[in-house]
């Protein structure tokens, strides 16, 4: 990987680590929804190995591939996280950093807590899938997870308040130069905080832990929703007035991961409230909620695809075809914003299949209709991995300009 890139660095490079963290979770999803785990809310080392013991050799081979890819992307996530922290510390010593924090691009700093929160999720997944018997002591681990999410949540709020303090006291926000949905990064970050807190709220059996974690999750859920509405209105107003910024075209898909995070948050809280209030889940809730989320994601996905194909974003910013060497923006790390939507669509698509269709009795797992519905999700996941590889090669590999 490149080193000491100085003024060419941008906090948006944290999206490279974020994307690889998301792909780690993406391969965990195979075990989460395709292997039985009746004694635990998520797949664990013990449940996976127990179920694989009774399967055929081809299934064992596929599981081994998923395990390997999960570990590979986890390694890449941690490697890119360390690289970003190092380069960011060097970047803070440049004049470009001072210029960054005086403009609207200061919002890009929120990719840092966004990525750190993903790191906590990655470590949780690795612990569950690699450590035998971990779930036997998980109640002792939830307080530490809660404190970690609290730290990233406070960091997110600190960056947000610093940014808006300057805007609301000094003004001068140039709406015409923010003709994209890049300001939605704040919503993305707070949605990640919300889904993080929702994990102990859903999986703990301690009423105190459930209550505190659920409140914090709802707190960030509400903020993410409020800011998403505000930023959608302002962003589309500027885009319809000036046209979309080509280098920020990928931001049109940012709504997809935000919806996935908020969708999973609601599902986790719904599960936690069953434990807290001794209720039972309603199939209609899962069907309506998951269907609504997936519908908006498909709508946003098609809209973004049509726009990015129209302005040749994919050919120039991903593949480097017909690339003008004088346009530095064509190598912008903002292109990494394409990875999270692909991962998010796969992840919530699996939630849709499991919660909305299988648990409601409308679909049988591993049936022909199941694989028909699974096919487009797998297609998106494979395309996302391919784009991630291309971006790593073009933007991070040593020897590239």
Low-pLDDT runs: none
| Proportion of strand residues | under 5%
- The CATH architecture would be Alpha/alpha barrel
What is the number of E strands? 0
* Mean of all residue-level pLDDT scores: 93
* Tally of separate domains: 1
What is the rounded distance between the termini? 12 Å
The CATH topology is: Glycosyltransferase
Keywords: Membrane, Transmembrane, Transmembrane helix
InterPro entries: TsoY-like
Transmembrane segments: 12-33, 53-75, 114-135, 141-164, 185-203, 209-229, 250-273, 285-308, 334-353, 365-385
Can you describe what's shown?
Keywords: Membrane, Transmembrane, Transmembrane helix. It is built from 13 helices and no strands. It has one domain: Glycosyltransferase (Alpha/alpha barrel). It is 71% helix and 0% strand. It has 401 residues and is mainly alpha-helical. α6 runs antiparallel to α7 and α6 runs parallel beside α8.
Please tag this protein with its features.
401 residues, mainly alpha, Glycosyltransferase
Question: What's a quick, concise take on this entry?
Answer:
The chain has 401 residues and is mainly α.
